[in-house]
Each structure stands twice: as C-alpha cells, then as structure tokens.
Design a protein that fits this description.
single chain, Putative 16.8 kDa salivary protein, about 160 residues, mainly beta
Length: about 160
C-alpha cells in the first residue's frame, strides 16, 4: 500500500502538468461551442451556458485539483447542490461572491487527444452542455463519453 501511495505522489505532478493552466478557453467537442457566463440567476449566482464566441477562463491548481474562474467576472465555476428534475445533473453556476469550497474544485484529465474531462470534486459529476444550452454536471462513473469532452486552449 505504501508503494502505491509513493508511486501516486511521484506521478501526480506529471498528470497535473498535462492540464493547460492560466488563461484558457473551453470548447465543447460535441456541440462545438465555448463555455460562457450568462445572466445573473440571483445575487450570489450567475448562469453558465455555451456560445459560439470564446470567453476567457483561468484554470489554476488547488492541491491535486483545479479551480476554474471566469476572467472578466472574477467568479469561480461550481456545481451546485441543486439538482435538475431528473435528479442526475447538478446545476452549474459561477459564484458572484468569491469562495473557496469543495463545489468549485474540479478534476481535469486528458481523455482523448486534445480533449479533457472536467469532473466536480464534491459531486463526482462531469461538466457537459445540457438542454436549452445550460451547462450542467452529470452524475457518471466515468467522464470518457464525448458528451463530457472539452478542448482547453491557452488564451
């Protein structure tokens, strides 16, 4: 067990180094649009959607995970505790007051060539474009389906 832990700790920096950090754009593989902020939902939350034109986000490390911040609004992307009617998807927003919680931490892994999956740490759900172009985080055992693939490019 100690050998496995030592191997993981030795390899973790290399896995993390594979993810583009700093200013980035996030483009959805299946729908061909970019991750974007949208209208304000309430005083603490802003909707997240997809658009044809790119918006700038900042990805940075948070321990062995990542945080994703909208550059222009200075707001963190998070998967809320609120679920869709199906009960399988978490609504995704940006925090208007900046916070540091588990719901705004993400695991980002390369899944296919230049594509990455983005999984919420707190909920274990995968970022995707849902109905009416809103962004959700879907409960899934693995985020390998094209539905969860994002191209992350530096600004």
């Amino acid at each position: 067990m100690k050998a496995v832990l030592a191997l993981f700790l030795a390899l973790a920096p290399f896995v993390l180094a594979d993810v583009p950090t700093g200013c980035v754009t996030l483009w959805h593989r299946r729908f061909g649009n970019y991750l974007a902020s949208s209208t304000q939902y309430d005083p603490k939350h802003r909707h997240v959607t997809d658009r044809e034109s790119p918006e700038r986000w900042k990805i940075f490390r948070s321990d062995y995970n990542y945080r994703i911040m909208h550059v222009d609004h200075n707001e963190y992307l998070f998967a809320s505790d609120w679920m869709t009617y199906s009960g399988n998807n978490n609504y995704v927003y940006t925090w208007i007051p900046r916070t540091n919680e588990e719901s705004d931490k993400w695991q980002i892994e390369r899944v296919d060539g230049n594509y990455y999956s983005i999984r919420n740490v707190k909920h274990g759900s995968c970022l995707f474009v849902g109905s009416i172009r809103w962004i959700y985080a879907k409960k899934a055992t693995m985020c390998t389906n094209e539905l969860f693939h994002w191209n992350i490019e530096r600004c």
